[in-house]
Write a structure and sequence with these properties.
12 helices, about 350 residues, 2 domains, about 15% strand, three-stranded antiparallel beta sheet, Phosphorylase Kinase, domain 1
């Protein structure tokens, strides 16, 4: 058994007060997550709540430990409101136990939307996202208020999100992003009275389906309470600009797949607009914000010392340069990225 599995089991024995606890199925890596490690496992001799298929989500050390606690609040609130998010059974911000802050949550059935169906992807995205946007966002804000330090509603507000981006750009000396960040602060839309729970990373790989229905929505790390245009913009940017070369697609088909992705993005936005009004200017602003969120991560990863960056294929690809060009088309300001280190 790998050291992570040993350490987790010892911790769970203490946490659940079950000294005879063991694995029915030891942790095995599963797909998903550019900045987390994800494992599926099952326990033997566990209390009823833990006697189900489980997921372990381990955060890289560069993430603030409070991220695990924040995701627990978000997922449990939206699940309690009737949305298909996995309930978190255990969250721990102590990175020394298994090498990173972590979550233990229920493993929902199903496969990613793209794997389950080829037709109706856009309409499924729209219907599932509108269902999320219909939830009471104040319930989530109040849950963060009750959670206390190190949490607080600023973790899921646009104001807090912008402030964290500004701090990270300053602290990590990402000077090529400073002008773009100023543009975002100065051009933030007024009249944001309509606020919903925005997933922030809503795309087909984060939606699970089985038997023709949505069984789960996963990866709630980027949740913000904001105007729904923020969520739509984030999804549109992901669908339009994720590099086809990173997909499991033969090179000869990449042109066709790239065109299909652009068509999917257009159908998705048009489908949402048929159900809810979206202002074009507001949507463009939030696309710019989605670009900077990704560019901050990419710039920091590319500047990290060799061996510490954990540079993933997405950050090493031309995804960042494509987002920089898109931001420039919206704002007239071009974010500057450091070049990706050569392998």
């Amino acid at each position: 058994m790998p050291p992570l599995g040993d350490s987790l089991l010892q911790h769970l024995r203490l946490e659940l007060r079950e000294p005879a606890l063991d694995y029915a199925e030891p942790p095995a890596p599963t797909s998903g997550g550019y900045d987390t490690r994800i494992f599926g496992f099952r326990l033997a001799g566990a209390p009823e709540a833990f006697s189900i298929p489980l997921i372990l989500r381990v955060f890289d050390r560069q993430h603030p430990p409070a991220r695990a606690l924040s995701e627990r609040v978000v997922q449990n609130v939206v699940a309690e409101l009737g949305y298909p998010a996995p309930r978190v059974l255990l969250a721990n911000a102590d990175a020394t136990i298994i090498g990173g802050a972590f979550l233990v949550m229920e493993r929902l059935p199903g496969r990613p939307l793209f794997a389950e169906r080829r037709l109706g992807v856009a309409s499924t995205l729209v219907a599932t996202q509108l269902r999320l946007h219909a939830l009471d966002a104040d319930v989530l804000l109040e849950a963060f208020d009750r959670a206390g330090s190190p949490l607080g509603r600023e973790l899921v507000t646009v104001e807090g999100f912008l402030a964290r981006l500004e701090r990270r750009i300053a602290q990590e000396k990402l000077s090529g992003l400073e002008r773009a960040m100023r543009w975002l602060v100065e051009h933030r839309p007024a009249d944001e009275r309509r606020r919903v729970i925005c997933h922030g990373d809503f795309h087909p790989l984060n939606i699970l389906m089985a038997g023709g229905r949505v069984t789960g929505v996963i990866d709630w790390a980027n949740t913000v309470v904001a105007h729904p245009a923020l969520d739509v913009a984030s999804t549109r940017v992901i669908l339009r600009f994720i590099p086809v070369e990173l997909m499991d697609v033969p090179p000869v088909l990449r042109g066709v797949v790239g065109l299909a992705a652009r068509v999917l993005a257009a159908r998705y936005v048009n489908g949402y607009r048929r159900r809810q009004r979206l202002d074009a200017t507001r949507l463009a602003y939030y696309e710019a914000l989605a670009c900077i969120r990704a560019l901050v991560r990419t710039a920091a990863a590319r500047l990290a010392p060799v061996g510490e960056s954990g540079l993933n294929p997405l950050d090493a690809s031309l995804f960042g340069e494509r987002l920089s060009a898109h931001f420039a088309r919206i704002a007239g300001v071009t974010p500057a990225l450091p070049p990706a280190p050569r392998a």
